[in-house]
Design brief:
Number of strands: 13
Radius of gyration: 29 Å
Bound molecules: guanosine-5'-triphosphate, magnesium ion
CATH class of the largest domain: Alpha Beta
Strand content: 15-25%
Helix content: 40-55%
Distance between the termini: 14 Å
CATH superfamily of the largest domain: P-loop containing nucleotide triphosphate hydrolases
Strand order of the largest sheet: 3-4-5-6-2-1-7
Oligomer: single chain
Structural class: alpha/beta
CATH topology of the largest domain: Rossmann fold
Shape: flat
Order of helices and strands: EEHEEEEHEHHHHHHEHEEHEHEHEHHHH
Number of helices: 16
Length: about 475
């Protein structure tokens, strides 16, 4: 995409594939008006009423046949999405009509847009920054309302706005140090040095807070695999069904009911959670059940979170103790199920202490639904790493942003250490410039080789 010529006029169907009430064909570039004049017949030319819908016909320029009755709209440069002249035709949503409109535009000199090319032009013409462009892509790909909400905040520049004060603070630190380098008389005294160190530490912790939201942001974007693990008959499938609010898995009083793993996705506070119901772990001579148990171990290995289910009405079994040993290093949640039956809370608290569980067991009943909300909250907290408010906080959802922010924080740390250790100003300055560069990479002010190709190739055509 890097060899895109801006002399080109591009065209694409911007509505989704398939049949619909309305479909949209978009053109952008210097020749949109001459092309539209040949393609669109209306009482008034499009440029007479920019930004307003004009009713007219789409006409094949070779045969003069009308092939659709449409609304056309002209957005003159620079007040369009791409910053160039843009024309949109809102047609009837028949794939054949939309293809014909594109074919005619191609014959009149346009060329097909590559994926994300409209958004790339918007970025290169400085209508939006890079994080806003990525927000548009994420909004189109969103599968939960929460994902969409985060993406729309990004399209409105939430991340760039959040980073702006940090950038300004960093710039003023750089100016301060640069002037100390330029004017030898103004070498930093101890007081200024310790003030700079304090400023840097604050900046570091501010950006670190943002980096810390990446764990939650990553899970919100990609979803989280949660494997429900435990001995037979503890109520794993019942809990799976209760969380799904649907009788998806077979439940019986017979131990060994579930044979194969079963995956369904549920949304918890906007977080897509892929729940995996598994066969109960036990030694068995039944071949089918043996294979099922092997699959349980595979699901366990693949899980981001292991939800261990215990039976509140029974003592802890040696197989459960062995299971806790096996998953010592993992993200573990414990649900003590069947708490509608008589049980001893202390027994499970002892278990939590013994296995050093970071989060105490949640007492639930798949039957009465007691404790399910608390379990959902624990799942969210386990994913976010605690302390992240899913409704108000800005989450880092993109690996590229997380990587650049991490590098910024590292460069700030190096600069601070250099100041603390009494190095001359040039040393911390180099790291501060590096930090500023890393922040610039996030919004696209600083570019690195191949980044645009990488980002925009993940877009769909017509956007
Ligand atoms: N009292 C009570 N019984 C429950 C509860 N949850 C499940 N049960 C019962 O426990 C039995 C086993 O439930 P399942 O959900 O099939 O248990 P499982 O862990 O999936 O068992 P396997 O598939 O054999 O590993 C069934 O008779 C359920 O009705 C609960 O919260 N309270
Ligand atoms: Mg089961």
């Amino acid at each position: 995409m890097s060899n895109t010529s801006f002399q080109d006029t591009i065209v694409a169907i911007s509505s989704p594939p398939g049949r619909g009430a309305v479909g949209m064909v978009r053109l952008s570039g210097p020749a949109v008006l001459p092309i539209s004049e040949r393609l669109f017949q209306a009482a008034r030319p499009l440029q007479a009423t920019p930004f307003r819908m004009v009713h007219g016909n789409l006409v094949d320029p070779e045969t003069n046949h009308v092939f659709d009755d449409v609304l056309g709209v002209f957005f003159p440069t620079p007040r369009s999405f791409t910053g160039e002249d843009v024309v949109e035709f809102h047609c009837h949503g028949a794939p054949i009509v939309l293809q014909q409109a594109v074919q005619c535009a191609l014959r009149l000199g346009a060329r097909p847009a590559t994926p994300g090319e409209f958004t790339m032009r918007a970025f290169l013409n400085q209508r939006i920054n890079l994080t806003q462009a990525e927000g548009i892509r994420d909004l189109i790909n969103a599968q939960t309302t929460y994902q969409a909400q985060l993406a729309v905040r990004q399209t409105q520049g939430a991340l760039s706005k959040r980073l702006q004060p940090a950038k300004e603070a960093l710039l003023s630190l750089i100016v301060h140090l640069e002037s100390a380098v330029e004017f030898v008389d103004e070498n930093l005294d101890t007081h200024s040095r310790s003030r700079l160190i304090g400023d840097l530490a604050r900046l570091e912790s501010d950006l670190q807070q943002l980096v810390d939201t990446w764990r939650a942001g990553h899970f919100v974007r990609e979803g989280v695999n949660l494997a429900i693990i435990g001995r037979p008959n503890v109520g794993k499938s019942s809990l799976f069904n209760a969380l799904l609010d649907s009788e998806r898995a077979i439940v019986t009083h017979l131990p060994g009911t579930t044979r194969d793993t079963l995956t369904e996705t549920v949304t918890i506070s906007g977080l897509p959670v892929h729940l995996v119901d598994t066969a109960g772990i036990r030694a068995t001579t039944d071949l089918v059940e043996q294979i099922g148990v092997e699959r349980t171990y595979t699901a366990l290995a693949d899980a981001d979170i292991v939800l261990v289910v215990l039976n509140a009405a029974e003592a802890i079994h040696p197989d459960e103790t062995a299971l806790f040993e096996l998953i010592r290093e993992r993200n573990v949640l414990v649900a003590v199920n069947k708490c509608d039956l008589p049980h001893r809370v202390a027994l499970f608290q002892e278990l939590a202490d013994k296995h050093n569980l970071r989060i105490p067991p949640v007492f639930v009943s798949a039957r009465t639904r007691v404790g399910l909300n608390q379990l959902r909250q624990e799942i969210w907290d386990c994913c976010s790493g605690h302390g992240v408010d899913c409704q108000s906080d800005l989450l880092i959802t993109d690996a590229r942003h997380a990587e650049s922010l991490n590098e910024t924080v590292e460069a700030l740390q190096i600069a601070r250490q250099a100041l603390e250790e009494g190095y001359s100003e040039e040393v911390p300055l180099a790291s501060l410039h590096q930090a500023l560069g890393c922040l610039g990479i996030i919004t696209g002010e600083v570019t690195i080789e191949g980044i645009f190709d990488r980002i925009f190739s993940t877009f769909c055509i017509g956007k």
